[in-house]
Amino acid sequence: MARSFTDQTDIFSDETVLYDSWTPEKLPERETELDDLHDALAPVARGASPHNTFVYGKTGQGKTVGVTYKLEDLRAFADDNDIDLSVVRYSCAKDNTSYQVASNLVAELSGEKPRGYDKKTVFDRLYDNLQALGETVIIVLDEIDSIGTDDDILYELPRARANGHLEDMWVSVIGISNDFEFRDNLSPKVKDTLCDEEIHFAPYDARELRSILSRRVEKAFKNDVLSEDVIPLCAAMAAQDKGSARQAIRYLYKAGELASNSGEELVTEDHVREAEAVIERKSIERGIRDLTTQDHLALTAIVSLEVDGETPARTKQVYAKYTEITTHVGAESIAMRRVRDHLQDLNLAGVVNAMERNEGIQGGQHYLFELGADLRTTIDVLQENERLGDVMDRITA
Ligand SMILES: Nc1ncnc2c1ncn2[C@@H]1O[C@H](COP(=O)(O)OP(=O)(O)OP(=O)(O)O)[C@@H](O)[C@H]1O
Ligand SMILES: [Mg+2]
Predict the structure, then answer these.
(1) Which of 11, 187, 194, 283 counts the most CB atoms within 10 A of its CB?
(2) Which of 170, 179, 173 is nearest to 194 (CA)?
(3) Whose CA is nearest to atom 8 of ligand 1?
(4) Are residues 119 and 53 in the same domain?
(5) Co-location of 295 and 221 in the same domain
């Protein structure tokens, strides 16, 4: 029978509150971190330059929202006290180099993207544009890990005045990253300049996630439409995984949608469990959708080892399983070194966990791999790949 849009139940009072982009009014779970940020920005109120700050922590920990919140505070203070302050916020997610960040910042500030210039010219343009902004400029570079080791913008900007590129003004940088390796691998020069202050956003625990969710529920849902275990369960599941507020909110939203779409008046624990399954599946699908057949074969090898309880496994072990599988399906086998690269791609996609091990002179440095996603769901998703033939059935038999 055709479905009618009138069949759904009206359990939300304002579901936009559950969007990732919705900005909460307060962040009591981040009081300590925001206090540290406050101290880093406090020199502005004294007519001086804020400290360069590096904010880091895993995904969904309120880094972006926390920094935005504190800077709005500072903005209001500056307006009330006639302080000449400019805040430039920029996400580096799509950039791979300092050059790209600099040229996109110029585009943002001047409305015109510099094309075909060398790095020095682009940086000069950036300084010209910053000079025009005024006395104190704070540049927030979010998702800064995208630039990898090409990180010189992170010391060029904080040092712009000292190096004579700017006059009578201050530029400070707040870098935000969710990649711990990026922080560890920053060049010593950058560490020296950018990391005056380092603020770590530690993963939320279940109690904190419950309080974050409760505040959203009040605004997002009508009264009494959530059974009492819904919030604790969303919080517990997210806490067990990455401690991400984003993930906890996603579980809650999806559970609400599932209840509403099936015409039910109450969101229950079952909806939350179903929501988790749907979200996990989507994230695996998204993680491997754009990957190659070789990636899928490497993943199949990991799945097979996982089923046999042989993970975490070293590259050699994964490779042996991999060649067994490629022989079976009649696919081309590639060299072990390249299979390791594919495993790293899967690691980036969040489907596989790669762990670095250093076992002294004898063991040397090597990687251990294991499945990072839910086993059952990964098998389901891989089963849809026809090239893998009956391999999945054999693995699970
Ligand atoms: N303490 C909190 N109270 C209310 N909502 C929060 C809190 N912390 C995070 N959130 C919400 O969780 C979601 C993720 O937060 P945010 O985008 O700031 O994470 P992030 O640390 O920047 O993650 P990423 O590294 O992935 O960019 C947002 O919707 C945000 O509003
Ligand atoms: Mg962020």
Answers:
(1) 194
(2) 173
(3) 62
(4) yes
(5) no
